[in-house]
Design goal:
Elements: H1 7-17, H2 22-33, E1 36-42, H3 50-59, E2 77-83, H4 100-103, H5 105-113, E3 118-119, E4 123-125, H6 133-148, E5 209-213, E6 222-223, E7 230-232, E8 237-239, E9 242-244
Parallel strand pairs: 1-2, 1-5, 2-3, 2-4, 5-7
Antiparallel strand pairs: 6-9, 8-9
Length: 245
Amino acid sequence: MASRLSIAREQTYAMENGTIAEDIKIEQAKLARTDLLILQFLIWWFSPPAILKGWFGRGFAYHTGRKYDTGMFKGKFAMVAATTGTSEDTYAPDEIDGSILAVLWPAHNGLFRYSGFDVLSPFVAYMPGRQDETGRALQLNSYRQRLETLESTPKLFFHPAEDYCPNERLKPYVIARRPRMSDHEGRKMGNGYFRTDSGSSASSTFMPVCICSVSTRASILVPSSSLISASITGTSSVKDGWLGR
């Protein structure tokens, strides 16, 4: 058994002994000093693009026992800002592509929550590639408003550790809850926001903000801001005060 390769064991050893590759150390340092991580990407085959998933796999490292409520990033916040190629209707819970929150579950729970982040409700711009200039302007304005009101953005609900048995299944008397988008709070608002039934929100001022994005023509633009003092980016260009992704 000792001679078998264990990726998890090798990763832990590298973290504990400082043998992580230098370029990965740089990315991990950015995560360590940020208060808020924003992952911005287009939804590609129902997930982030491969280049961003590669960043997840190389940049995040698991420490034994440090997950969920005791995760490495406890006390920090994270949010997805995504664009889609199809309409908002197709990502409703009763529509063909399924709930947008189900599509984003691997990022929300498997990456953010697992590593300790509090997860803010995502911002989604639907079908920007098929919008006219007026529609794109509305999406950009909605995203600007979201970035300006992050402190009041609701958090997604996740069960705390005390709701689970030792086998990590919910205790029999605990009613299962999952992040959800209601008609009133989501689809009928028509502005790219969706809220949850958690009733809570972020209350701190975020500084610095770490944005990890993937360059694509399908994405909307990201406003340049003094909050963005630590930026993890793919390729980007600056034009008229905006970062083009």
